[in-house]
Amino acid sequence: MNAVQLSGTAKTFANGTVALAPVDLGITEGSFTSLVGPSGCGKSTLLRLIAGLAAPSSGSVARAASDIGFVFQDATLMPWATAAENVALPLKLAHSDDVESKVAEALARVGLEGFAKAYPRELSGGMRMRVSIARAIVTGPKLLLMDEPFAALDEFTRFGLNDDLHALWRQNRWTVVFVTHSIREAVFLSERVIVMSPRPGRVVGDVAVDLPPARTAEMRMGHAFTDQCAVVSGVLGAAVGLKAVS
User: Fold this and answer.
1) What are residue 2's phi and psi, to 5 degrees?
2) CATH of 1-67+142-228, one of 3.40.50.2300, 3.40.50.300, 1.10.10.10, 3.40.50.2000
3) Phi, psi of 157 (to 5 degrees)
4) Residue 201 DSSP symbol
5) Residue 188 to residue 166: CA distance in whole angstroms
6) Which end of the chain is more exposed for a tag (fewer CB within 10 A), N or C?
7) pLDDT per position as a tens digit, 73-93
């Protein structure tokens, strides 16, 4: 069953910029799918259409569930609020019960049990992003949309968050759609990598990732992982008319 179905979905902005050519794409429930492509190809636009934050100019977007979590590239935390208060925001907006226990559980799931009372200025970039992820999952969404959430982080922190995110996904089986510029990140995290063309964005590749379900740090050093990255790189390179690099 598809959690998301895009049918002839296109987007043209008011200034005439054609961001997305018609896209037909189904996202299987419980899957982890990454979108890669050159800058300006419409990856983030596509994610916003899936979220309902923007409307398509033509075509349709169908979602099996209305409960969505969204993680932006910037942690977008309220600087005057503690980690717990930031995570609690969507629960309070929804007038949820048991706010305190749900917030504590969400922070524990992202490894921040002891930081509920910390303010964003007291946290590292990686920890702030963990708070952002906790805020996105605290309501128990079935669909998690992530727009380059780790792009601004150093490689060591990014790898650690990739490890933790993949483990969380395997435990919870959310449907995840993840936008990234990193082929290695996309391959490590995903079951499937969708490759998009330069603007106007369209799907030019759909690569099934042939790696074991449990991803490990050691896997990044192996030939199988490198080979999978080369496949995605080749599809992307052909799309932009450049020589592929792994």
Assistant:
1) -85, 130
2) 3.40.50.300
3) -65, -40
4) B
5) 9
6) N
7) 888 899 999 999 999 999 999
